Amino acid sequence: MMMTGTIGMHMENITQMRKRHEEEIENLQKKCKHKQISDWTDYMWAPGHYGMPVKYCMFCGKILKQKNFKQTFVDEECSTQTRKEKT
Ligand SMILES: [Zn+2]
Known about the structure:
Blueprint: H1 4-10, H2 14-31, E1 41-43, E2 52-56, E3 63-66, H3 69-86
């Protein structure tokens, strides 16, 4: 309450901060050689939404490989059917 004015002068608002981060991340990902690649990881693109498996650069965070969601779904369906037939 006392220092609102001072903080307001020194801090950027969320929109400015996001924009700056987006630009910084973009620059980083352009420069990065993507040498440290993660294992297949479930990427959650939004809270409550199941992610699809991705491989990303552990340095800059860029997603480099992405499994086809439909393909994964078909595979799961097939393996379930196979198991049922065997039982
Ligand atoms: Zn990278």
